[in-house]
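Reopening this ticket.

The earlier resolution said the output was attached, but the attachment link was broken on my side. Pasting everything inline this time so it's all in one place.
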Amino acid sequence: MSEELAEGLVAGGATRPAGFLADGVFCGIKEHDPAGEKRDVGCLVSELHATVAGVFTENKVKAAPVLVDQERMQLGVTCGIVYCSGNANACTGNQGLANAREMTALLANQVGVAADEILVCSTGVIGKQLPMDIVRDGISRLAPARERHLEAAVAMLTTDEWPKEAAAEFEANGHTYAVGGMAKGAAMIHPNMATMLAYLTTDAPVARSFLQTTLKRAVDDSFHMISVDGDTSTNDTVLALANGAVGGPEINGGAAGEALETALRAVAVHLAKEIVRNAEGATKMFGVEVRGAASVAAARLVGRSVASSSLVKTAFLGSDPNWGRIMCAAGYSGVDFDPDKASLWLEDMLLFQNGTPTDFDEDAASTLLDRKQSLFILDLADGNATATAWGCDLTTEYVIFNSDYRT
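Inline output:
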């Protein structure tokens, strides 16, 4: 189940901000659903034209929806997103592009806007054409409403066990604004980025360039700091929509910009951590807080290297405090630091100090690693920059699941 909301977050999802509607239905892309619990087509709609920003996969093989969205981002505004799960619409050629564009046209016709004012996403199996007959039917049954945010979040899911939502509020220019979000992802999770989709919304008026800059920074601190299995997908998309429904002057930096960024980052970090907690086969997650780095970029690189290490993940699975694997992963991260000045903690237990192992209680350390969530702290003693990455254990269930994913 989803983790309790962290401090600074409030209940709700992508429709917590004013002027956003959503829905999700089952059309049959996924297997038959006699219990009525699955959904595989969804939408997120803004009642007003929204400024839009996006961060996309860096994989050279990009799914049709990613290509369509990157093209439409040039407009700078959108009225919503239509999406499906169970089929990635990736490696599908011109037909895939046509299908992605048709999905946007279908939703656009329903909500009364131009097709190029709608964005599109897909997630699921690569290399299969969308079954457009049932997709058309599914989109025709979407009835976006503010209270249907959970249905929309469920429609994003592939192998995820639960929907991922979060929201926050902030004060700026005499107004109270909200930031909301929903995400999916459970495998093929690795910077930059992962098999994940994430939609962030706000009812604040935000300058497009500032929204893009703010989103990129939030992604760098969240979705780019998680790793499940070292694979980066073809469909990764994070979109931020700002519709200005609450009013007020346009946010373009200053104190108002800082308040927006704090809220946006809080929502993004929560969603990213939920993806790691819900990773395929995972039983627990760990954080790697890197301190004393020469730069934020260096701290992020070291943290990601440790969180991505298969040997760290397997040691974590067995609750083995084999801290040498952490130092090894930090050492091949590409960051130049002096290991003789470095120190490592598991929670408040010192494992390694100034290049020398400590006489710590291994049984007590193993007990700490038995918990659902643990934190390693690595101080490089090379500067003042910090960053935190998140990873999970690598289990036999993950291997078994992905050995017959299509069969």
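Reporter confirms the inline version is readable. Residues 20-277 form a domain with the L-amino peptidase D-ALA esterase/amidase fold (CATH 3.60.70.12). The chain has two domains: 20-277, 285-403.
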